[in-house]
Amino acid sequence: MSKVLVSDPIDQAGIDILSQVATVDVKTGLKPAELIEIIGEYDALMIRSGTRVTQEIIEAGTQLKIIGRAGVGVDNVDVPAATRRGIVVVNSPEGNTIAAAEHALAMMLSLSRHIPDANASVKRGEWDRKTFVGAEVYKKTLGVVGLGKIGSHVATVAKAMGMKLLAYDPFISTERAEQLGCQLVDLDLLMQQSDYITLHIPKTPETTHLINANTLAKMKPTARIINCARGGIIDEAALAAAIKEGKIAGAALDVFESEPLGESELRTVGKDIILTPHLGASTTEAQVNVAIDVAEQIRDVLLGLPARSAVNIPGLGPDVLEELKPYMELAETLGKLVGQLAGGRVELLTVRLQGELATNKSQPLVIASLKGLLHQALRERVNYVNANIEAKERGIRVIETRDASARDYAGSLRLEATGTLGTHSVTGALLGEKEIHLTDVDGFPINVPPSKYMLFTLHRDMPGIIGKLGSLLGSFNVNIASMQVGRKIVRGDAVMALSIDDPLPDGILGEITKVPGIRDAYTVTL
Ligand SMILES: NC(=O)C1=CN([C@@H]2O[C@H](COP(=O)(O)OP(=O)(O)OC[C@H]3O[C@@H](n4cnc5c(N)ncnc54)[C@H](O)[C@@H]3O)[C@@H](O)[C@H]2O)C=CC1
Ligand SMILES: O=C(O)C(=O)COP(=O)(O)O
Q: Ligand 2 centre and the CA of 217: distance in Å?
């Protein structure tokens, strides 16, 4: 049975799902060294933001197949290191959207009405109504930085509260922004014109310290900023200084450069700052959502099924997978075949999508072809996650072409590879009940389902050659399951595809090429 380690607190609903297929150990609060020591036993790791999954941990996780992040941000996972090792990283892109958006809105209202400090003062026995005079958000301008899932919900609710909306997000369309009632502007204008600014972007090298002393200097002295996205997007020292010096009116932070927040200038800012301990996703509803969403994906991957929200398998969303899965199997088979025909050190792979496939997304098919191509060298180490990287590291160039006019089959895929044995091509299609058929080898039309062990020959189409090959194989005790010849012209060059029951014994290929008329012979294992 598989083993799953849950290293941050997650809802029981997730544990129940994992327990259907695995032994589940919940061990929270582990130190990095403790995690490194035990991770080697586990097939899957389930985390929230509390666990930093470093390259060292990934390398110690020799059995790991999947890392599941029960939440959105995967900035606490070394995704490139996981990808190199072929480990799927999944998250829950929508499970806590509402929770995080509502937290940002709660922060905005709390900040404008001094609720945390007013509450604390009443609890101390005071009745001070003058200190806590606030500001209305109605008719004020909210600047939303990042108009994705959370930013969009914040914008929708803020609009309903009568706020004017500006948004900065270089990756969304003007139409989408308009639909949400937002005017798209650049960051400078947003900083200058907003009364409230709320951040909803991922933490990346580009967004680290996006909000710094310079950008803060552009804000109105009456403006306030809210960060419920990621620590480190705002330069904390610059923010503390800007509030203390009265350059801006206040800030509300749920996330910090280093968590848990240690000694920090931020704690000394006073009533104009609100700090919460990364509570954005901490609602009962969100925790059930993310736990179920991610546990289901871990369960599926452990059962050999694809994950629906993998962050490191490009182009393989659930809808794409459903439609393309049979073609991906075809691509992988053709990749294995052409890789063995072309021999080692393949430098160039051309993937041609033909017929109705020409209108499809090609990326999953390219990944599947590369997975097949690299199988000979890497065996089980290559998968959909790392096939692209492994190919790049081996210097394999990929060219994609499309030919919608190829109409021999509804949709077909042609792979051509150049390696130590020259340039070879194979084409395949799905026939009948989506059964894989090889329809062309090196330009010669054939029609055979692939089998585990195959032999291909390039020979002259002349009488007696099939018989000679048959007796030669018989003398080596090789049983032929099926055989087909493909030729373009009578008595010209031809290709023979044979399915054999067992691997070809050593040395026989040399004997085959000695048969008069046979120019080349190739054996493959699929
Ligand atoms: N405080 C908490 O507990 C929670 C925090 N989060 C964080 O909230 C953030 C947003 O999450 P979602 O809305 O679900 O993500 P999303 O992917 O739906 O949206 C992110 C948006 O940011 C935009 N963006 C990316 N780079 C940008 C840049 N350099 N400048 C401006 N815009 C940029 C993207 O185009 C996208 O529209 C993430 O960092 C996530 O980790 C999410 C859930 C809970
Ligand atoms: O989903 C996210 O990105 C979050 O920041 C939530 O973090 P958490 O799972 O509550 O530790």
A: 30
The three state secondary structure string of 235-302 is CHHHHHHHHHCCCCCEEEECCCCCCCCCCCHHHHCCCCEEECCCCCCCCHHHHHHHHHHHHHHHHHHH
Is any ligand 1 atom within 6 A of the Cβ of residue 280?
A: yes
Distance 402 CA to ligand 2 centre (A): 42
Question: Ligand 1 centroid vs 194 CA: distance in angstroms?
Answer: 19
CA pair distance 89, 489, nearest whole angstrom: 52
**CB 73 near ligand 2, within 6 Å:** yes
Count Cα neighbours of 188 within 13 Å in the Cβ-side half-sphere.
1
The pLDDT of residue 385 is 87
Report the distance separating Cα 22 and Cα 64, nearest Å.
Answer: 13
Q: Peptide bond preceding 260: is omega within 30 degrees of 0, i.e. cis?
A: yes
**Per-residue pLDDT tens for 386-395?**
899 899 988 8
Contact 455, 500 (CB under 8 A): yes
What does each C-alpha distance from 92 to 45, 99, 285, 309, 386 come to in angstroms? Answer: 15, 13, 13, 7, 21
pLDDT, tens digit, 9 for 90 and up, residues 291-330: 999 999 999 999 988 788 889 886 666 667 677 888 999 9
Residues 6+ apart with CB under 8 A from 128: 118, 121
Q: Is the ipTM of this structure higher than 0.95?
A: yes
Q: What CA–CA distance (Å, rounded) separates 132 from 520?
A: 89
Ligand 1 site, residue 339, Cβ cutoff 6 A: no
Mean pLDDT of 160-166: 98
Residue 230 annotated among the catalytic residues of the structure: yes
